[in-house]
Amino acid sequence: MLKGILDGCVLSVIEKEEVYGYELSQKLQQLGLKDISEGTIYPVLLRLQKSQWINGKMRPSDAGPNRKYYSLTDEGKKALESIREEWELLSRPITNILRGEENDINS
Amino acid sequence: MTLTVKKMVKQNNEKRNLLTPENKTYYENMLLYIRTNAFKDEKATEEVLLEMLDHLLEAQKEGKRAEEVFGKAPQQLAQDIIESLPNESVKKVMGFSLEIILTLFGWYLVAWGAPDLILKEGSTIYLGTASVSIVLIVGSLVGLIYFIFAVLKKSAFTNKKKKNKVTWGLGIIFGLVWAGVILLNIFVKPFGPAIHINYYTAFGLGCFLLLASYLFKKSREAK
User: Fold this and answer.
1) Within A1-107, where are the H helices?
2) Chain A residues touching residue B58 (CB < 8 angstroms)
3) What are the TM regions of this chain, as residue ranges (chain B) (predicted)?
């Protein structure tokens, strides 16, 4: 389950703008995911490319050298939407369960 | 803009020298572990290796150590990356194998045919002995290559002392296999139907195979 959530976070960052690996890891950290090792984004990026949710293109960066920039594909946009919906449904009950609250959220 | 595999490997070699000794060791262990996994798409492999190297170089500029960037469990990370990489297509694996076999036989025939060419004497080939030798040589080489890859992968994250031991072990095994092949050729009487060949046949065929394998290699690298 956590795997899919990290995928969603990566997709969301890429949706806003095209990023390369290092940039992506910095953005995730700035957004508060400090405990995630920077290396873990690479298996995620590979997986997302294999599912054709993102596209990687080598092009020169502002700093000069070539970097691989990632962008969302149409399929990726759809996938991100469904991850978002799923998260909306799950996030509140999970938070409650983990906090040990027994309030019935439907009431 | 896409880079060929050869160019990416070259870039990787150059950029790796910019790493601090500590970061270099960490990165190279991971590189070795990931590269020794056959049957994964070569281009995707080199792309991700180069990306991670760039990442490490940028982090290094900010004074970070590899362990802080990629974590304390590089082997696990490398394993995750291997599992996420796309598989190499069967066609490519077959093409690459064919290329290696052509090169192998090419050199074998050239070395074997060279004395004939110089002396201008033909020789007699016993098909039985020849085919058994070929099977042995190819079989032992394939086994050896596979074994080297397995050992390299296994030893990627172990210390240097152990690595030296492994290198020695490999050398000894290599020597034994080849001694076996040579002894077999000397002590087992030739058998099978005999054919006579001209003094230039073996050498010429060897050159032809080498040329073919060279063309294969060029077309593969251009992709």
Assistant:
1) 2-16, 21-30, 41-50, 74-99
2) 22
3) 93-113, 125-149, 170-191, 197-216
